[in-house]
Task: structure prediction
Amino acid sequence: MSLRLSHSKVGLAASISIFEALFVFVAFVGHDSAGADEMRRRPNILLAISDDQSWIHTSVSGCRTIATPNFDRVAKEGVLFSNAICASPGCSPSRASILTGRYPWQLEQAGTHASSFPAKYFVYPELLEEAGYFVGYTGKGWQPGNFKASGRNRNPAGVSFSQRKTKDVPATGISKNNYAGNFKEFLEEKPADQPFCFWFGGFEPHRSFEKGSGLAAGKQLADVEVPGFLPDSEAVRSDILDYCLEIEWFDRHLGEMISAIEAMDELENTLIIVTSDNGMAFPRAKANVYEYGIHMPLAICLPSLVPGNRVVDDVVSLTDLAPTILDVAGVEHPVARGENNSMIGQSLIPLLKSKESGLTRFGREEVYSCRERHSSSRWENLTYPQRCIRTSRYLLIRNMKPERWPAGAPRKLQSGKLGPEDGGYHDIDACPTLSFMITEKLNPDVAPFFSLAVAHRPAIELYDIQKDPACLKDLSGEPKHQEIKVMLEAQLNLFLKTTGDPRLNGNDDVWEKYIRYSKMRSFPVPEWAK
Result:
């Protein structure tokens, strides 16, 4: 592996050439028409994004406790990306990166959780709208956060279509938003001569889940594959079944949307992207840059352009989605307009148009991810800054403030007094699995897993994710892995510096100053700050 900046420099040149190629493609498919008819023939865009789903939890990936026929269909009719990495393991920074094609450290307030979204950063729905697309979203767009605080007059995902509701939900934790019904309303309002761009943001499988809903739906505890970083118990298995039930609800609405597009005879001309924002809401997954926090499901199809039934193993980033969408739509990138808020992601068009599977000649060797603040989890609202580089084999993590608690402080203040032991950890969503681990933390069968979730971590971690997807064996101290460790750490630091990460460019504490608009908590002063 060599030190290089292929992601930023080569990617920009590739995006421009791809744009030119796609312009020829768009012109070709509409060569026999003009004006409104040519506009109508431009590909439609449907991006479907679930909320907190790790890559492994689809039926096409072999998960026995789940049925996702519609995700599987998109994967079969297009491309299943086996190594898709989100830009952050938290909702709002990950979604901001998807919308902008930029990494969170390049987005100021939008790069952390529950803050704001500066209007100067271009988002692909607005760029497509300017180019003549009919734009909307339903469910969860960019959130949590306050987009109005930075000068935006609507959610960056577009115009909201979320009025239609349903009572027919399989569990109390599931949103009553009739996603598919709202998509159909969107299509009804769309002018006949316009292509569409729609964001389907499911609230599922975000917590909380109805406890026992998976079992009540007929799922079996014996079918659960418990990730290696969680204790294998009935409580954990049942919690995972509840999670799987919510993914199936998201997939059901995806299927209804695909059927609506088919009914319009537009499926051949619609780019469908299905993914998630970050990993499963369990300890050591969501809000962590381990595999189960950053490795996402991703399937993409566009029958008129993309050869189907392929699995691509190249590492790709969800920052790649925005430039891919612009290229498919034949819309200029911000840099082509002379703007300096360019997209750093690389268009996936070469991978999509290729007939290759596995590791292709069109991919790159590394992508990146990061986190700052997630919940209000520490004294003074401090973050837990992490940066990582992910190749097809290795994951190197840099924990920039290892003295801080990774899952949040163990105890918080309540009415000015110190609360109960283990009453904190608010970077882990409250759940039966965490409750079980706290209750059983002295049990020798559970204690190691509890420590993995909440204990302090070293400044550098290194994992062979092909052999150890659960990220249990840290290789950073092993002599035979020193060369790869040094190389990956240097490459990570160089990329961060070159792309303007404040943590490496003399503005280390800026993340602590961004306003949080969600719930705030109080915590005692940590020992290291006294």
Q: What stands out?
A: The two ends are 43 Å apart (CA to CA). The longest helix spans residues 234-263. Residues 1-35 have pLDDT under 50 and may be disordered. DSSP finds 14 helices and 16 strands in the chain.
